[in-house]
Specification:
With 391 residues, this protein is an all-alpha fold. It is 74% helix and 3% strand.
Length: 391
């Protein structure tokens, strides 16, 4: 007798299917509130969508979960994850319009835990597929651009206008972009300052061994200080500078505001930049240095012509760490008047308005995610180029 058909399950697919089943059948898909601060009423997928649409989404979720559960071809898993994510993105907007009473400007409809769990599950499936496909750095950036363009089209089309987070945005559109500009300026400005100071300091630590341990230990100590505590510690000295140094206040230096936030982020940024510079330079093959000496190159020529180019991918890894870290930490700057997306986060916490919290948190996460993907791609391309040049 022949053996029966054996069903093979994907290990990650089991987790994805379990999350999807709970999210679709047990968790709420959307939350309806009569206004922005009252407790919400949980609604399932079938309750959140028109009668002809809810079952379609359920069918898509079940089919995509089964495809994830079984050992299916990568192309099929890719299509399933994209279709499921697209359906969720489109239909949460439909749920917002369906649940909001006509002419009611006070009601709020928010994505609930079931929606976020489904987004997480199928994003995990998509990430697994893209990892297995081993895409080139350019292709990964291309995927990011396509995803950003799709989200942009949904925003421009007005499909999500009935959702509470967009209503919070419309009420604060001007301040949103102003705080976003402050957030990006803090993150990039502190990174630029850390690179300008950290690279020469890292080179010096590499060349002078006695200096290395002391500098890295001090930077390690700074890194262990909680961000809120460091912001607080900087208030007094910067306030003194603003009061006693002519022209300091005119430059924006004061005890609270952007100055202490910038200095704190700069101090947190130094360790990854300095440490990765030291590690990168220490990892340069001795043969490369010996060959450069044999060609009569000076120390300066070897540093900029041989050592620094070979160490650059490692240094760039430190810069990636700093940028992602600073995008997140800049949120805390709002506590001392530094601005940024944290303004909406802390306003939302104070008003128990979670949609306002999301208005600050979602763009922060998106910026950090995009920065990580882009810099990972740049690091990989740079490392590949160096390998080709040294081959």
């Amino acid at each position: 007798m022949g053996e029966g058909v054996r069903i093979r399950f994907d290990k990650l697919g089991v987790i994805i299917a379990a999350i999807s089943a709970y999210a679709a059948f047990a968790a709420p898909f959307a939350t309806f509130r009569a206004n922005r601060i009252v407790p919400g009423e949980a609604r399932s997928i079938l309750e959140s969508l028109p009668a002809a649409v809810g079952p379609v989404l359920m069918a898509i979720v079940v089919a995509a979960a089964l495809i994830a559960l079984l050992k299916t071809p990568l192309a099929l898993r890719l299509v399933a994850s994209v279709v499921a994510l697209a359906a969720l993105a489109l239909l949460i907007g439909v749920a917002g319009s369906f649940l909001t009473p006509a002419g009611n400007t006070f009601a709020r409809v928010s994505p609930a835990s079931g929606f976020w769990l489904l987004i997480f599950a199928f994003t995990l499936l998509l990430a697994d597929v893209l990892t297995r496909l081993n895409l080139s750095p350019q292709a990964r950036v291309g995927v990011l651009v396509v995803a950003a363009a799709a989200i942009g089209l949904l925003l421009v089309s007005g499909s999500w206008n009935s959702l509470s987070i967009l209503k919070e945005y419309f009420n604060r559109a001007d301040s949103f972009w102003a705080e976003g500009s402050k957030h990006v300026t803090l993150a990039l400005g502190s990174l630029a300052a850390a690179v300008i100071i950290g690279l020469p300091l890292g080179i010096l630590c590499h060349r002078v061994e006695k200096l290395r341990a002391g500098v890295l230990n001090v930077l390690n100590i700074i890194q262990t200080i909680p961000s809120i505590a460091l912001f607080g510690l900087l208030i007094a000295p910067l306030g003194w500078v603003a009061s006693h140094v002519p022209g300091a206040a005119a430059l924006g230096i004061r005890g609270i505001g952007t100055a202490p936030a910038f200095v704190a982020l700069f101090l947190y940024s130094l360790l990854p930049v300095v440490a990765n510079t030291v590690v990168g330079l220490a990892g340069v093959p001795r043969a490369a240095n010996d060959a450069a000496r044999g060609m009569g190159m000076t120390d300066r020529q070897r540093l900029f012509g041989v050592e620094f180019p070979l160490a650059f991918p490692v240094i760039l890894t430190g810069i990636r760490i700093v940028l992602v870290q600073n995008i997140g930490l800049a949120t805390i700057a709002a506590l001392i008047g530094g601005g940024g997306f944290g303004v909406f986060v802390f306003q939302g916490v104070g008003q128990t308005a979670m949609d306002l919290v999301l208005l600050g948190a979602v763009p922060t996460v998106a910026l950090a995610f995009a920065a990580a993907i882009i810099l990972d791609a740049v690091i990989e391309m740079t490392a590949s180029k160096r390998r080709v040049e040294t081959a």
